[in-house]
Design goal:
Length: about 160
């Protein structure tokens, strides 16, 4: 999945990962995803002891890039480190979202396939709205959006 195309399967699945700062929000989002009917695979961590966010970003990003899961959710303190790390993996378009509107646009225009949230800046109710928007918004396949996504993906070869 190295271009801007987006796979759609009948039952969307999501890979979820977090560092120590994201454990509680991750648990809340797993419950929320279950309520939304989205099957989730939890790549950890379940520990609150300090760990390295790129390790979990890599697991989730690779599982999306290789097609094991349709989309991913990564949670750290700010969401910044997770988004930086996930965007290093070819095939991934990770978006750090603090607002529901951004989550909708990240899917609709940018075809983001990994959502990043900062547990230290985003409360659980707002995070749930962001996750709902990300999961339920279809990617817009109009030519101009697909062309721009293709240009993003072409940069990953650099
Ligand atoms: C951990 O303290 C923190 O740096 C991490 O959760 C994240 O915010 C990094 O971007």
């Amino acid at each position: 999945m190295l271009d801007g195309t987006v796979r759609v399967r009948a039952q969307m699945t999501i890979a979820v990962g977090n560092d120590h700062a994201g454990v509680d929000l991750k648990l809340a989002m797993l419950e929320h995803l279950a309520e939304l009917g989205v099957e989730a695979e939890d790549f950890g961590t379940g520990e609150r002891t300090s760990c390295d966010y790129p390790d979990f970003a890599e697991k989730v990003a690779r599982s999306v890039a290789d097609g094991t899961h349709d989309i991913g959710l990564l949670i750290c303190g700010t969401g910044l480190g997770m988004s930086m790390a996930a965007n290093k993996v070819n095939g991934v378009r990770a978006a750090l979202c603090c607002f529901e509107y951004c989550a909708r646009m990240a899917r609709e225009h940018n075809g983001a396939n990994v959502l990043c949230i900062g547990a230290r800046v985003t409360g659980p109710d707002v995070a749930a709205a962001i996750v709902t928007a990300f999961v339920q918004t279809p990617v817009n396949d109009e030519e101009r959006h697909a062309r721009r996504r293709d240009k993003i993906m072409a940069l990953q070869g650099d």
